[in-house]
Amino acid sequence: TQLLEQSPQFLSIQEGENLTVYCNSSSVFSSLQWYRQEPGEGPVLLVTVVTGGEVKKLKRLTFQFGDARKDSSLHITAAQPGDTGLYLCAGEKTSYDKVIFGPGTSLSVIP
Amino acid sequence: DVKVTQSSRYLVKRTGEKVFLECVQDMDHENMFWYRQDPGLGLRLIYFSYDVKMKEKGDIPEGYSVSREKKERFSLILESASTNQTSMYLCASGGQANTGELFFGEGSRLTVL
Question: In degrees to the nearest 10, what's the CA dihedral of A60, A65, A70, A71?
Fold first, then answer.
C-alpha cells in the first residue's frame, strides 16, 4: 500500500504548455518535499512545504501544501524541455519517522 | 555546494560476487541512507544510519549489510550478489534536525549477471 500516491503516473506535453501533478495521502504529514530526478541521476531537492495551505514558487514552478497537510501539488507554467524528468514527492509524518517517497510522475516535455 | 559522492556510477558483477558500494558526504550530516530504485516500485529504503557505528534496517534489508565507521562515509555491502539485486542504488544524507530533506548522490547502476 502506497502511503503517498502521485498522479498522473506519466505525462507528455508540448513545450509551452502548463501542467499540474498531484501528491495525495490519507495521512497527515509534518512536511512534504518535491524532488526532480533526471534519467541516470539521483533526485535533487526542489522544495519543502511545512505549513498547511503554504504556497512556494521556484521560477515557473509553484508548489502548494494542502490545508489538511495530506496532499500537495506542483504546477509548472510554460513547460520547457529542461523540465523533463521524474517528479517525486516525499514526506514524513513526524520528525521521528522515516521519509516516505511517492512512486513519481514521469514528465516529458516535447520541443 | 553540498555533495554526496558515490564511488561507482556503473558496475557489472557476477552472481555470488561480493559488492561494495561506497558513499561519502561533505555536509557533516548525521543521517545517511541507502535506497534502491526499480521501475514501478519507486525508492525503497534498504538501511539507514543516524550516527557513526549505528545502523537501522529499512524496508528491504535482506541480502544487504552496511558499515559506518566514519561520519562522512556509509557503505553498502552485498555479500553474495544475486540477479534480483540488479538495480539503481542511491545514497542520501540529511541533517540531524531531520525535516525530510535529503541530498542524493548520482546513483550506482548495478547489473548482476
Answer: -20
Q: For residue A105, what is its C-alpha cell? A: 510522475
Taking only the tens of pLDDT, chain A with its 111 residues reads 568 999 999 999 999 999 999 999 999 998 899 999 998 899 999 999 999 999 999 999 999 999 999 999 999 999 999 999 999 999 887 766 778 899 999 999 999
Interchain proximity B43–A45, CB inside 8 Å:
no
A32 contact residues in B (CB cutoff 8 A): 100
CA–CA separation, B97 and B49 (whole Å): 14
Dig out the grid coordinates for B42 from the structure.
519507486
* Whether the Cβ atoms of residue B8 and residue B21 lie closer than 8 Å to each other: yes
